[in-house]
Amino acid sequence: MSNDTPQSSSRRHFVGMAAAALAAGSLSRLAFAETSPATGNITEPANGDRTAIRPFRVHVPDAQLVDMRRRIKNTRWPDRETVPDESQGIQLATILGLAHYWATGYDWRKCEARLNSYPQFITEIDGLDIHFIHVRSKHENAMPLIVTHGWPGSVIEQFKIIDPLVNPTAYGAPASDAFHLVIPSLPGYGFSARPTTTGWGPERTARAWVVLMKRVGYDRFASQGGDLGGIVTNIMAKQAPPELIGIHVNFPAAVPAEILKSLAAGDPMPAGLSDEEKHAYEQLSANFKKKRGYAFEMGTRPQTLYGLADSPIALASWLLDHGDGYGQPAAALSAAVLGHPVNGHSAGALTRDDVLDDITLYWLTNTGVSAARFYWESHANFFLAADVNVPAAVSAFPGENYQAPKSWTERAYHNLIYFNKPETGGHFAAWEEPMIFANEVRTGLRSLRA
């Protein structure tokens, strides 16, 4: 006797059809929606040279924005958390409030206009289209600088530092502090192409950035980065291309190997640490114990995150949650979304629209999963002492994953030309404190101008 119900029979029929399609190489028949939505216009050269510097302008069709709002409004919501705090993740009330504004009050076109106010380009490097913003200073002898964003960020993170770095005299700094800025989108992020083969991790990206800088006309330049951008910058420094004159990082890789070993084993704090080192150890211990879930998932099983491509709310909650609720380093994001400080942490200059601009960029470009794969492609420990010899400037912001002690930083960066611990700012320093961040970059790299 069969125990089949109509539902179970239909379910087995669908699974069987899917398996047959896969076996026959007909995966495309299961592709119900476009995976590569059009988001902009590229001016292609007459000769078809994809390695040329091709002008790019963002233009998202209205239909994509209508579809995004429809999906937000049609979200199937879970029950609220069973605790009175954020210890189980992004609270339902928080995401409901964000969703309502996202679907009814948020205007992507303002961000699109801001993007298009900067010169943007696409160029193919090592078979992959790379998007970048390139803003030249009017000041003579400006230093070329490539600035790399992280996750869950994008080039949108850098908007508020562009003019202070390119046009320093408007902000009380001398013309001699000016920079020419190149701000690329990481592979698989934003308007850069999504890799279709393995290998696009920090090492390959660091090499690609050298090609990019030389292609736009700079044979000597500095590099800056935070979060994943800091990892790419550190690796570029280890590779030590002759064109690289120095680096500035606000996510330093400075933790000694013996400290990392102790943290991984869950050991008590080692004896003999200074007060500064003890503070860093406590921050790292909390991070390792309960704040790395998102990174483990993306580093091991990024393809499983299908919800990031199907649901704007799944994407938003994933990008907002760093496993720390209203603590650092994501406190600024939470404060911006909620519109008030959380646990004493301010959003600084970061606004709710800034956060939604960034999340919406991920949604419109369908890069939630491809961005996650960058973690899978990253094989170096993000915290392990960098061991680099090129001139390095380090800004250790208090709201970072850990505030690197100078003692550790000097061991990791053998030619440390600048070290400072700003009084405010966190993991998203360029967003949170753009004026402080810009001053850190100017001051940190100033000695390289000679």
TrEMBL record:
**Cleaved signal peptide residues:** 1-33
Q: A single GO molecular function, which one? A: epoxide hydrolase activity
Please list the residue ranges annotated as the Epoxide hydrolase N-terminal domain. 53-157
Keyword field contains Zinc-finger:
no
Q: Which InterPro entries match?
A: AB_hydrolase_fold (IPR029058), Epox_hydrolase-like (IPR000639), Epoxide_hydro_N (IPR010497), Epoxide_hydrolase (IPR016292), TAT_signal (IPR006311)
| Entry annotated with the keyword Cytoplasm | no
**Record key words, sorted:** Aromatic hydrocarbons catabolism, Hydrolase, Signal
**UniProt similarity note:** Belongs to the peptidase S33 family.
Q: Identify this protein by name.
A: Epoxide hydrolase N-terminal domain-containing protein
Which species is this record about? Answer: Paraburkholderia humisilvae
